[in-house]
Amino acid sequence: MKAEEAVMVHVVIIGAVAAGMSAASKLKRLDPSIFVTVFEQGEDVSYGACGLPYFLSDIIPDERLLIARKPEAFRAAGIDLRLGHTVRFVDVSARCVTVRVNKTGQEFKQDYDRLVIATGAQPIRLDVKRGDFANIHTLGSLQDGRVLKKALSDEAVKTIAVVGGGYIGLEVIENLHKLKKEIILIERADRVLTNFEPFISKKLEEHLVEHGVTVKTGETVRAYTDQGGRGIVETDQSTYTVDLVVEAIGVRPATSFLDGTEITRLPNGAIVTDARMQTSIENVYAAGDCAAYVHAVTGKPGSYVPLGTHANKAGRVIAEQIVGNDVTFAGVLGSGVLKVFDYEVARTGLGVEEAAAAGFSVETVSITAKDKAGYYPGAVEVEVAVIYDPLTCRLLGAQMIGQAGVAHRINIMATAISAGYNATQFSGLDLAYAPPFSPVYDPLLVAVNQIKCLEQEEKE
Known about the structure:
Layout: H1 3-6, E1 10-14, H2 19-30, E2 35-40, H3 52-56, H4 71-76, E3 80-83, E4 85-91, E5 96-101, E6 107-111, E7 114-117, E8 121-123, E9 136-137, H5 142-152, E10 159-163, H6 167-178, E11 182-187, H7 198-210, E12 214-217, E13 221-227, E14 230-235, E15 239-242, E16 244-247, E17 251-253, E18 271-272, E19 284-286, E20 291-292, H8 308-322, E21 336-340, E22 343-349, H9 352-357, E23 363-370, E24 381-388, E25 395-402, H10 406-418, H11 423-427, H12 443-448, H13 453-459
Parallel strand pairs: 1-2, 1-7, 2-3, 7-19, 9-16, 10-11, 10-16, 11-12, 18-20
Antiparallel strand pairs: 4-5, 5-6, 8-17, 13-14, 14-15, 21-22, 22-25, 23-24, 24-25
């Protein structure tokens, strides 16, 4: 983009948390002459939503620690940041958005040359009868965190139902446990963390029970009712008396304001993007939890993986694209890690079902090994599963669980899978070794060396 053209360019960004402010900040660094307007329906910007479970238990004692930059810092950088402004509709033909000022209800239209949609996602709420019981919460925003933390400070809140056994639900459970709460986990599926291998789910469920959590899988919540100020959670199998409920059953892209537009979306509302982070409409981009990405293994668009790491990287790619730089997004692997009491749990790449659905031949190897030299004090077991294509030996995914050494190992696998490594290539990696950190043969090498086609390749 030429400098004289940049002066005339007006970029409108919808959303001011991760992707939106990453794009805005990068744009102003790349070309200060570009006019950037950001509309945010809430009053909070650029905060670390992934830290919210730890804010509940005071591991993060002050909400200000979650905020990367304050609104005034963005405005000082030349960004026209407008809080309390909700975008109601996008007219892609006219290149304008309709905006409502929340405090006054007044609406106005704003033209744009480039549009960036970074509206994130909203927690899904159960569509059940709720009666008069109101102490039901979600944890999707900083404001949600404030409200829930205040509710938890009530000494009368002793028993809590967490509905949903995914990432957020499990992280919330650990932090409620730190607050000495009695916890009931209710999960509709037959196990927690259904996007992981069953052996990981089983180990986690046992670990939750060891820490006093009541685990109820295969149960569906039917209704909430109030009984003398306490809540009755009615499922298809039982009833539970609680003081508070946290619903953590997933998120839905916040894109309903795009209804009626020609912007292509998945059935769940996620905006389909290409490697440039552009949507099906030219000069309209999307990133963050409202967007679906190209998958790094399959090379196909339409993968919905709502994680903060993608949001920030994709926002920067959009800025590069807008100023004319040929920078693209490498795609998502779905790399994720979480801590559940004493365990680290992580995955990257495709799971077995995902790989099969993508058209790969699929096999899995699973091993258990020590995270460091067996004779070194504190060595613990790490369980590793590697998903691969037996026809090509290509590594497709990996999952692991252990009390130590998991988080950094999943990043090794993510790097190898991103690079398209097969088993032979991985088995030759020169991984660092010292007794406090790894056995001579790292658990990852032990796992990959179990791949059946490896010996066949070596004989050829």
